Fold this sequence. Notes:
globular; 14 helices
Amino acid sequence: MAEAMATRLLILGAGLGLVPRIRAARAAGFHCIVADDLPLPHGFAVADAALRVAPDDVAALQAGVQGLGGVDAVLGTNEPTALAAARLGRVLGLRGAAEPEIVAQGLDKLAQRQAWQRHAPEYHVPHRRLRGPQDLPRLAAALGGFPLVLKPQRSAGGSRGVSLVEGEAGLEAAYAFAATSGLPGSAVLAEAALPGPQFSCETLLRDGVAHCVAVGRKVKSPPPARVDLAVVYDRDADAWRAEAARMVGALCAALGFRDGATHTEFAATPDGLRPIELAMRCGGGLTPDLAGRVGGVDPFLAEARRACGLPETLPPPGAEMAAEACFRFLLFPPGQALRPDIPEALRQEPGLVAAEIFLAADGRVAPLRSTTQRSGWIGLAQPPGALPGVVARAEALAARIRLHYADGSARPPLPCGAALPA
């Protein structure tokens, strides 16, 4: 433990959603430094030290780190900061840093798909890079018909600019949404929408071998938005773990990515598993906490230990689930919100990992189009097969939460509805 106590970890990002990660890393013995330039960097209050620096400004981060006496590893928490972590790690000469050229493919959805088409063709998904709106009239025919998904080629993640398009009438709006939601200079990418249920898996890559920690089934918002309403880690989702590990291993090999953490979204189509996105980082929010309870290894902490050169534990192949879990996001009706009300008794519920509401600085609750417009979450874990089921318990707990509005009303979260499994 003395070795871990001396290990200095820089986490790029300090939003409210990262507070659980910072707390978990400190509890595991890391000296945590966080960097962000948010107006309200919640992570500063729970870290050992903080840098008020943009988390993708490598030069400013380098100066700040050197002023604090250096670090042993840097971890990014979304696509742009994962690339910044790789670049900063190389500048600082850190042994666990990834190759920036490889991590850059995680930021470029077209580069990913081209690599998979060349080196893992069994996972190919038809796609097109659009030169402009002039490509829309022939798009459906080129990709095998509707439905289609349009998205920015390069974005900060979080379903920004992503739309499911079910017919010609929605193409122009979807193109405009993608074109204005990407990183500067990003093109628009279109691809065939994949049939079948969608999942995400948390995987650790070690010397090219994929170790899948946990698989969760996604509950998506209605079209055209493609935002997660919930992720359910149960036995049905876990049944895909071995096959998902094989797919992620092949996808990462095609990208030249051999050591690190991945958060991969995929669909179980009639023709087998097909990838939707692959991020070269851990899943966000409570994902590492819940995946750790389900699979026995917190992927964020495992990645921190790998990057710092410390001993770590990997999930054994074929291990039974240690728990079932539900990551249930909180969505509220649009309006002017004043304050949340989460009963203290709810926070004492067995198995509750977290229950939080986070509002925009102006208190406005906007209609849902990306993950940034979700208003909070509940994370719950319990023994496999326990009654009531983890989904039913998560729904019951969410129903006890209220958001107070300027019009005097106090409203519960919107239900996930019939989309959630029983």
